[in-house]
Amino acid sequence: MNIRYLFLILTVLLLLAIGLIYLIWPPVLWSLVFLGPLMLLGLSDILQRKHAIKRNFPVIGNLRYALEMIRPEIMQYFVETDTQGRPINRLQRSLVYQRAKREIDTAPFGTQMDVYDEGYEWMDHSIYAKSVDEFGESPRVRIGGSDCQQPYQASILNISAMSFGSLSQNAVKAMNKGAGLGGFAQNTGEGGISPYHKAFGGDLIWQIGTGYFGCRAADGTFSAEKFRENAAAACVRMIEIKLSQGAKPGHGGILPAKKNTPEIAEIRGVQAYTAVHSPPGHSAFDSPDGLMRFVQHLRELCGGKPVGFKLCIGKKEEFLEICRAMLRTGIRPDFITIDGGEGGTGAAPLEFSNSMGMPMLDGLAFAHDALVGFNLKEEVRLIASGKIISGFHMVRAIALGADLCNSARAMMMAAGCIQALQCNTNRCPVGVATQDPGLMRGLVVEDKAERVANYHRATVKSFAEMVAAAGLDSPDQLTRGHIHRRIDENRVMTYAEIYPEPLPGSLLVG
Ligand SMILES: Cc1cc2nc3c(=O)[nH]c(=O)nc-3n(C[C@H](O)[C@H](O)[C@H](O)COP(=O)(O)O)c2cc1C
Questions:
Q1: Residue 189 CA: which ligand 1 atom is closest?
Q2: Given a cut of 70, is residue 136 above it in pLDDT?
Q3: Is any ligand 1 atom within 6 A of the Cβ of residue 269?
Q4: pTM score over 0.85
C-alpha cells in the first residue's frame, strides 16, 4: 500500500483508538502532546508541493531534509556511493539543485578541487574580458542545412533524449513545461511522442529508435504514414534517428515489464506488462548510404524539418564510412548528436554502461575532425551529450567542436531526481523515473517545471559569462587552445595539443 494512505489510515485509527481509550482512561489524552504535532507534520507533508520525498513519505521523509541541512558536517561521516562504490559527485549535484531552486548561485571559500591533480582542466580568461550583454545571455544556434526547409533556432542547451516510460508522465510534463518557459527543446527519447510531451507546448525533438515507436507498422518496421502524421505536429521541431546511446551502445532499449503500463504500451504499439526490447539495429536501412537515404526520406515526409542522428562512436571506420556516404549520396544530416560512453540510461547491463562506447570528448573530437576532414562540417551541426552539467562542461564541448549541448541527468536532477538509483525498479521515491501513480504524485509539475527552466537559465548564463571572460564575442570563437588539462604533476597540454585538428578537406585527398 502507498505509504501516504498508510499514514492517513494510521492517523485516523490512532485518533479513534485514543478516543475509545479516553472513555475508560482519560489521561490517554496526554499522548496527543507527542502524537498531535507528528500528525500535523504528516498532513502538512502530504499537502505541501515543494518536496517529493515529504509528499511521498510523510514525517519520515523529513529526516532526509534534516540531514541535508547539516550536510557539511554529516558528509564527513557518510560518503554516498554509486553502484560501483565510487563516491557520487556531490559538488555537481548540489550545483544543479541550487540553480534549480534559484538558491544562491555562488560557492564559498574558493576552489574546491585539487588543481595539481592529474586530469584537472581549466579555461583561459582574458585581460580584455567582455561583458556578457555583448552577445546575450542565451545564445541560439541555427540547425538546418541547405536541404532543410524549416530550420530550427535551438537553444545552446537542451534536454537530452529520455522516453515517457523510463520517465513518469509528471517528469515528462515538468520538462516539457520547463522547456516551454525557458525556450529550449525536449528530446522525446525513443519511446515515441506521448500526450505529456505535448501538454505545455515546449519544443520537441522526436527521436526514432530501432523500435520505431510512434511510427511503427504492425510487424515492428518503420511506417511512413504514421511518421508523416506525427511529424507534422507544430511542436515537433527536429527529428533524431537513434543509432546508439552511450550507456548501452549496440544493445537497444529495455523497458522493464513493470514500467510497461497499458498507456505506454498503447503509445508504443506493444503488449502491456511485457519487457520491451528495441532491437540493437535498424530495419529501415543496413548501410551508410541507406542511412543517408533514410535521412532524406524522413526529411521529405516531415516537410523539411531538420533531420539528424545520434550515436556513441564505436568503430571509427564506420563513422568515416558514413561521411563518405554523405559525399557519395549528396545527402547530409542537419545535425549529429555525439553521446559519450559515460552517458546515462534508465536500465542497461552494467558491462555495457561501464565498458562500451567512446567517451564523449574523444568521440566528439573524432566526429568533428572527420567532418572537417571531409569538408562536411559547414552544413552539419554537432550536438554533445555526456555528463554536461555546468557552464564549463558546455565550454569544453563547444571548444572541442560541438555547436550545442544536451543534458539528461542534470535535467532529471532539476526535476527532482535524488539519484536513488531505482530507475530500473519502478520504485523511484521522488516520482521521476517510475510509473507508480502513488510515487509520481510526489512530483508537482508546476514546481519542477520552474526548476528545470531555472537550472537551464543559470547554466547557460554561467556558460555565457565564461565565454565573455575569455574576451570572446560569441561561443563559436571558442577553440581547443582555450582549454588546458594537467597531464601529470609537471605537464599541461591544451586541447589543441591533445586533439590536433586536421586541415579542412584533408581526408578528401588520396
Ligand atoms: C532515464 C534515461 C532515459 C534515457 N532514454 C534515452 C532514450 O530513449 N534515447 C536515447 O538516445 N538516450 C536516452 N538516454 C540517454 C541520454 O539521452 C543521454 O544521451 C545520456 O544520458 C548522456 O547525457 P547525461 O550525461 O547528461 O545524462 C536516457 C538517459 C536516461 C538517464
A1: 8
A2: no
A3: no
A4: yes
